[in-house]
Amino acid sequence: MPTTLRRKWWILGMLGAVTCVLAAGALVWQANDQQRQQAQNRSELKRACAGLLPERDLRQYLPDDSAGTLEEYGTMLDPGQESRALLDCTLSWGGGRWGPDAAVTIRAEALVAGQGDAKPGNSEKDPGDATPYVPQVDDFEIPLPLGAHGSTVAGERLEGSEVTASLKVECPNGLKGRTLPSRDLQVSVTLPAQAESEYDVPHADRLRTARTAVRVANWVTEKQNCGTGSITTKSAPAPRTSYEPSTLCAWLDPETLRFEEGDSTDTDGRPTSEYGWEWTSDSGFDERRGLCRGQMVGYSTGYEGAPIVDAIVQSWAGSYADGAYERFAETGHVPGARQRSPTRPDGSVTVAKEGTTLSLWARSRCDTGRSYHRITLTAEFPAVGDETKHVMSRSDRTEFSQHARATLDRYLADDKAWPKRSGCGDTKILGEVEEWVR
User: Fold this and answer.
1) Rg of the chain over CA atoms, in angstroms?
2) DSSP character for 300?
3) Of the four, 96, 103, 174, 329, which is 20 to 30 A from 295 by CA?
4) Residues 245/281, Cβ–Cβ less than 8 Å
């Protein structure tokens, strides 16, 4: 081989080797850079928001290719930037076109006279949304002492979901940091959740957010010499899901309430249905709230009319009652908030296929004060046309209302159900809410 040709091959070989070395070096450098970035993000997460964030649970949201953005203010922070809040902190990661990929926010504020309660964030809901909106405004997951009130609300982000916990605590010794005197501490915490939809957010994510709000409140009240003890972070018993209702919810019997009409057997006496009921209910009595829910699982055939496939019964007492009613009012899901559906000359109504839900509200005077009860039933009606619509006849609509009233009457009368256990009386029917797309 000529010398010049060998020289060319040698040069090409050296260039290839150098390229391989550089490529390998770039990969090593990139890996080291990602490790450094992730370490920095973990360090920032640990110290952010006065070290009150659930660090281990939030590590899954940390990117390894970009730094987090921390905005932190408050009258109790060092060096103490100007802020009306005792603690105001936001930590976000990623910078998509419409906002961060994930973010956490904390705000602890001394409420002054006339300011009112800060309300937890929530996604906007069209009152005509096909999916019934059942916000967990009364569900804080943690037992609270007298004088403290809390709620958790799930919401949707552009991608994924989040949970906001709101907690109000009384401070007998007062709170410093505001020009006017204050004895009310309001804490709001928003953390990301893994679920794709707000309706699928698990109990664990709600509990994590509620615990963070409690830690923030305890941190503030201790530093402010609030005059109240620390709140426990132990969770309240979660509603249980099983194929048998709890003692508090045994009254919600679909057979007794005649949620299905017709004969469930064929001419030979064989069953024509493959279904059952599953219950989500309180395992123990709580004087602040009650929940019973039964859902049909599987499918049913051979029934005439429109079977009830989902029944939700909720009660709230005292301050929980007002908060629950206000939250439903914000979305138009209280009596009188919407006009009734227009009907055809024969009295029938056409609604969307996604689900036909009717709610009935009532108010009682109970041992713990004013209480609200909400009966929410979902029925399945025969599809028509392109199978995107349901048709309710006049008789179907009447039967639907009768089911709701019968469910409420049985709920109020049963000795083991929440109303009797709470000493409720002087009940007034407030009206129905049509929760369906027209």
Assistant:
1) 28
2) E
3) 329
4) yes
How are strands ordered across the β-sheet holding 161-170?
A: 69-73, 87-93, 102-111, 184-193, 161-170, 149-156
What is the pLDDT averaged over residues 361-371?
Answer: 93
Structural domain includes residue 87: yes
3-class DSSP assignment, residue 372:
strand
Of 86, 45, 85, give the one whose Cα is nearest residue 62.
45
Picking from 116, 216, 228, the residue whose alpha carbon sits closest to that of residue 172 is: 228
Residues 72, 211 share a domain: yes
Ramachandran category for residue 327: left, alpha or beta (phi over 0 → left; psi -120 to 50 → alpha): alpha
Contact 188, 164 (CB under 8 A): yes
105 band by pLDDT with thresholds 50, 70 and 90: very high
- What is the rounded CA–CA span in Å between residue 166 and residue 212? 10
For residue range 3-47, what is the model confidence (pLDDT) as tens digits?
Answer: 665 666 666 666 666 565 555 554 545 555 667 867 888 888 888
- Total domains in the chain come to 2
Q: Which residue has the tokens 């003890």?
A: 229
pLDDT tens per residue, range 126-140? 333 333 333 333 467
| Residues 211 and 340 grouped into a single domain | no
DSSP 187: E
In this structure, are residues 412 and 356 in contact, taking their beta carbons and an 8 Å threshold?
A: no
Q: Which of 61-65, 305-309, 428-432 has the lowest mean pLDDT?
A: 305-309
Domain boundary among 192, 224, 256: 224
- State how far the Cα of 432 lies from the Cα of 236, in Å rounded to an integer: 31
Cα 82 to chain centroid, rounded: 33
Domain holding 178, by residue range, is 44-112+134-224
Say what the pLDDT of residue 119 is.
36
